[in-house]
Target: Large polyvalent protein-associated domain-containing protein
Amino acid sequence: MSAAALRYHIKAALNKSASVQDFKMQLNHLVQRQDFDNATKALIRELEGGLPPDEPPNFNYNTQGTKSYTDLRRDLKQNLMPILNQDIKNKETGVIARISGTGLNKISSEKALNKSLENGFTKEEHFKVGADIKALFENARLGKTHEDYKGRADIKAVHRYFTEININGKKAQAKITLKESVQQGHRIYSLELEELSPLP
Model:
């Protein structure tokens, strides 16, 4: 490929990008093209490698007013419906997980909510953060993995992921629980809010 043609493609990729991360994604698409020779692909990879690392996202949340538990559950289901049973990839581990209707019900359950309430958060804060479960899991850090304490044959392991957040000016962490199933792979099972403490 000529230098002029490569410049054209790189400029087009840059024009489509709103951030460094977007530009990296555009370059990655270019590398997948069948009509690019290996030398061209190597140049694109070299360019990609010279870009600054992605900025870690800031998870800042604010809530206003109060809502009933019924309304909060309804709103959460509406927000998460588009991502139900869709692949969600954790950047640190490469693990691909999904959230099912069961997981959605668990996140919005009184049991999960009560854990957040016991940790000093409001029901509005719990549901506000829950609506962002996809981005939170994508950027979470794996804290610990253990066997299924209930000894269920289908559960290979339970994984706890953590993401630092700021909600209404309070530093906190979202704890996301994944169950690794023999049949269904990784499933996002629960979310609760905890006061920010040293991560395990």
